[in-house]
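Note to self: keep these together.
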Amino acid sequence: MEIIKELQTKLDYPNPVVTIGNFDGVHIGHQKIFNRVVEKAHELNGTAVAITFYPHPVRVLAPDKGLKILTTFEDKIRLIASTGIKVIICINFTKEFSRIDSEDFIRNILVEKIGAKWVTVGHNYAFGKGKKGTTSLLRRKGKKYGFGVSVVRYAKVYDDIVSSSRVRSLLLRGRVCETLKMLGRAYHIEGAVIKGAGRGDYLLNTPTANITTPNELVPKEGVYAVKISIGRRQEAIDFVSVARVPCLLTKQGQRTRAAEVHNGIANIGKNPTFATAFGNIQMSYEVHIFDFNKNLLGQEIRIHFIDRIRDEKKFSGIGELKEQIKKDIQKAKEILSKRKATLIYLCEQNVVSELKL
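Structure:
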């Protein structure tokens, strides 16, 4: 797989089959589009190409909205590549770029720079200045310039249309179980394990690993049944320096050094029970891994959210909290013994691997 930043000259790929979008979250609707692109590329003996943008256009055009991104840039790129896309073009989205007319985008980028043989987009995709670029315009221009067009209908889960905004809404309400179906995998956050206050171990006899995370969207505060994967830190993909960078990925079944995957329970919140005794408590992301006693300080872990157990709550004291933690752990074990989920976990540098549990 290649990642391309600059489109200064015409690319030289056989019969490019192209899709365009932000693809935040790489949910099953996006995956449906990528699968069609890969299938068409195979049919035409061509190259599967995805065009995406950095930063997200909403960040540039409407920064006051405070949009939270579902996936880090690195995750998005690797997840797209894992679908079989061979070339990812990351266009630096600026206000100047947003003023490009949709017809100019088709002619200058799709035709002259990429040489698109086929273009596949989602049913409601719009592009170009004022979002005047529609699927109808693509079809008309395709006849003029000699590329085919296919439009992929949205995916639905529980009679609900799958979209990035819908996934965000569910996560912010803690409904991670529903996002499993929409993403086709468990939603995860990742980060390096840092030194915490230590209360879980010496006060509660339940040692926890605390992380600092680059993920912007973290599920609603509360207690969750989770899977934890422990692996090597991925090599960062720096957008500024990206230019035809090879990126190695693997799917389930291919040989790679698998991450350790464990069951556990996670707490997201401000630990209100300790707020009075210890002063203002900052938001924390901590996880207790069942039957695990290794020191993870400084290591990289991913927390994969399987289901929500309860809201965060202030207890009358440590005794009551300890009893609740026992109940939470038992509940989490019951959930994790029954609930199956696909995890996208870290293995070695530049590798994304898929594990179906």
